[in-house]
# Entry
Amino acid sequence: MDDADLRAWPGRRVAAMAACLVVTGFCAAVLVSFGPVHPFSLAEHFRLQLLLGGVAVAALAGALALGAGWLDARWFDAAMFALLVDACVIVPDLASARREAAAGAAAAPVRVLFVNVHTSSQDFAAVRRLITGEQADIVGLVETDARWLRELAPALEAYPARIEAPRSDNFGMALYARDPLTGAAEHLAATVPAILAETSVGGARVALALLHPLPPVSAAVEETQLRHFDAVAARVRGAAAPFVILGDLNAAPWSRAFARLRGATGACDTRAGFGAQTSFPAGSWLLRIPIDHVLVACSIGVRDRRIGPDVGSDHLPVIADLLVPR
# Structure
């Protein structure tokens, strides 16, 4: 079938219309992701998916415009423009360099493990194996109820210092350390707790904040999440030691909520130099986004940062190897 036959093919109008709808939908999704009003603001958490989808949409539009003549080239231009707009937001994040420890500074190696265990999960053994196998210095857990704390007790015997705040809903949490741990669970501008504490590892003091804010399922809850971040940031800024913020933040790195927390604390993202590090939902690689985080004071170096194995939760664990100045 030559080009003239393609143009005369009765189905070409249907194909062109379908392709135009796909391009229009993609461009609208990118535009909506910049909307500061809920629920449009939810789209910004899925910029990685928009980037991958945009490549496919632009390729389709280009093939139809240049190859078969089914689609006006202006639709390809629109798809490319939307793709580049989204790329301008996400590519700098994905291409950022790893943070090294300050040259010549004495630093203590500190391994941090964070897991959202998922309250309704029954896979206690997998989480116990993860905790035992990683041998982290600091362990943060969220979605822990009394049952979870009881089932994980054998793996947590190596952590005599602990602050536990179990709840029957999805917002219980617990923080563990090998060395003395001072602090408490507090409610900071939110109905859900945050644990603020301090410990010492290898002679290096570390201020800790374990967070699990409400997911931004409505405009009111989204505003509560921001107030929670602001209140936590005010406390972290006053810490006498380099800080580590860990938790399920229910915010992707390119979201405004995440940017607000980083800006208010001056934190650096341990993901830098290690790629997307997507963690939720564990069961779908296509929809997975990075909302489980370890943020640190920028004086802290990062040797390694990785996503752990599936432990039966809807989130994947995060393990970060840090270098904390003494």
